[in-house]
Automatic annotation (TrEMBL):
<keyword id="KW-0119">Carbohydrate metabolism</keyword>
<dbReference type="InterPro" id="IPR015888">
    <property type="entry name" value="Fuc_isomerase_C"/>
</dbReference>
<dbReference type="GO" id="GO:0008736">
    <property type="term" value="F:L-fucose isomerase activity"/>
</dbReference>
<dbReference type="InterPro" id="IPR009015">
    <property type="entry name" value="Fucose_isomerase_N/cen_sf"/>
</dbReference>
<keyword id="KW-0413">Isomerase</keyword>
<dbReference type="GO" id="GO:0006004">
    <property type="term" value="P:fucose metabolic process"/>
</dbReference>
<protein>
    <submittedName>
        <fullName>L-fucose isomerase-like protein</fullName>
    </submittedName>
</protein>
<feature type="domain" description="L-fucose isomerase C-terminal">
    <location>
        <begin position="349"/>
        <end position="475"/>
    </location>
</feature>
<dbReference type="GO" id="GO:0005737">
    <property type="term" value="C:cytoplasm"/>
</dbReference>
<dbReference type="Pfam" id="PF02952">
    <property type="entry name" value="Fucose_iso_C"/>
</dbReference>
């Protein structure tokens, strides 16, 4: 069961400029609420309509009493730009500004609200107060259109709320061989994230303190039931269960003031020689619960995976943007690749950390690369613990949030799919297809210095992620949306 994500409690407050009829704003607000109910959106309707600063205080009291954590500021008419933006400024959570369209040509005297005009003044005052609310691409509509904009805002708000209430636990120094994982952590504090960095010894001590934990057999039974016939190394399950309990107890004990938490852990090569297994399957199981555990102390990778989980409310994974698709594989499966070019394709791979719900088939195996290094010519022992197999075909979105060396935040979003082609390799792996991936690879991933890890959402949520990054104040966002692909011979990802 997915957990570790916030519940969005929406509230809507109508605003009205005092020279316009307040009843117009209230009538339009009620119509929006009715449309939200029709779409299954739970939204609290504040009865205070904001015309002045005193109304702002009354509305905030209403919202607080209803435990609202995401606010829709609704311009039912022109609206008072000072009080309405003060409302968003004093509200403790993400906010959205949206405006009412005129309903009919038959009532453009007493029934005209001029909210189209009012959004311009609102935007100016938003700038004066240095606010960063969500404003839809075209933020003016009738009640049905506004309700659909609010539905999108729910997903965006969930990302913002989750990030603002997050703690990241890391274990071990970030690896020398993956300098990309050594990005500065100062921007995490700018986002409102707490971070608790620990040594591998802290983790090792906690793990050893869980030896013979009476809960281990129960976790082993869960693993056996989940793996079924894919349980190829049953002897390693007690150690994996001990490790899972270690992380979950740490999660409960050290979240402190934060509501949510994730992990970025050192996972090789000393991990295998000291702990006696690879942690991949446990990482997959925690990701299934909404608690990502990124490999190689990739703090921004863990955050990216969590953001994807917030956007979709589904388990996510972190993969390497790993290798090209061989030409003979492309030729042998042309019917499945449809109109994708070879440069649109790559293989997404990691040792074995993808949740089993996203696997076409899955088996408990051993990590081949580490086995070559740590126990060559021996039966696998300390390298057991991966969850391997082909990733299910279907929609995907790849995403990464990363700090540059000078502490700027950059992110990318690209949508595509996993193709139903046998990857014919090891690890948790799939054949990925993204339109214009070749140019995206060159002009975003390489040009903007992104590392090899990407978070994978098993759903198309590019617009949600793009809008959430804007609300979080990310400095540079690259999105492979179709509008960016009009000019074939130019770089569309500026």
């Amino acid at each position: 069961m997915i957990q570790n994500i916030p519940e969005v409690k929406l509230g809507i407050v109508a605003v009205s400029r005092d020279c316009f009829p307040v009843t117009l704003s209230e009538k339009r607000r009620k119509a929006v609420v009715e449309e939200c109910k029709r779409l299954g959106i739970d939204i609290f309707e504040a009865k205070t309509t904001v015309e002045n600063e005193n109304d702002v205080l009354k509305a905030l009291d209403e919202l607080k009493s209803a435990d609202v954590n995401a606010l829709v500021v609704y311009l039912g008419n022109f609206g008072p730009e000072g009080p309405e933006t003060m409302l968003a400024q004093k509200f403790n959570g993400p906010s959205m500004f949206v405006a009412a369209a005129e309903e009919t040509q038959e009532n453009l005297f007493d029934g005209r609200g001029d909210a189209y005009c009012g959004m311009l003044n609102a935007s100016y005052n938003i700038g004066l107060r240095k606010l960063n609310p969500y404003i839809p691409e075209y933020p003016v509509g009738d009640s049905s259109e506004v309700a659909n904009m609010i539905a999108h805002f729910v997903d965006v708000a969930r990302v913002v709320i989750g990030v603002k209430n997050l703690k990241i636990f890391s274990f071990g120094p970030r690896p020398q061989d993956f300098l990309a994982c050594n990005a500065p952590i100062k921007p995490l504090y700018d986002l409102g994230i707490e971070i608790m960095e620990n040594s591998e010894l802290d983790l090792f001590e906690a793990f050893n303190n869980h030896k013979d934990d009476p809960r281990i057999p129960e976790i082993v039974k869960q693993m056996q039931d989940e793996l079924g016939t894919g349980n190829k190394h049953p002897g390693i399950l007690p150690k994996l269960a001990q490790y899972e309990l270690t992380l979950m107890d740490w999660y409960e004990k050290y979240r402190g003031s934060c509501k949510f938490a994730i992990f970025a852990n050192k996972c090789w090569p000393a991990f295998q020689t000291q702990f006696g297994f690879v942690p991949c399957y446990v990482n997959a199981r925690l990701a299934s619960k909404g608690i990502p555990v990124a490999c190689e102390v990739d703090i921004y990778g863990a955050l990216s995976e969590y953001i994807v989980t917030l956007a979709t409310q589904l388990p996510a994974t972190i993969l390497d943007i790993n290798n090209t698709v061989p030409k003979d594989m492309y030729e042998a499966n042309k019917d499945k690749f449809k109109d994708y070019k070879p440069t649109d394709l790559f293989m997404g791979f990691h040792c074995g950390n993808t949740p089993i719900c996203h696997m076409k088939y899955a088996e408990m195996r051993y990590q081949l690369i580490m086995h070559r290094l740590l126990e060559p010519d021996k039966e696998p022992d300390i390298t057991r613990g991966t969850l391997e197999g082909a990733i299910k075909p279907g929609e995907i979105t790849i995403f990464r949030l990363q700090s540059t060396a000078d502490c700027l935040l950059r992110s990318y979003v690209a949508q595509g799919e996993v193709i139903d082609v046998d990857p014919r390799s090891f690890g948790g792996i799939g054949v990925f297809a993204i339109k214009e991936m070749g140019r995206f690879y060159r002009y975003v991933l390489i040009q903007k210095r992104f590392p090899h890890h990407t978070a994978v959402a098993f759903k198309h949520v590019g617009k949600v992620l793009f809008d959430a990054m804007k609300m979080l104040g990310v400095d540079d966002i690259s999105f492979n949306q179709p509008a960016n692909m009009l000019y074939k011979d130019e770089n569309p990802f500026k």
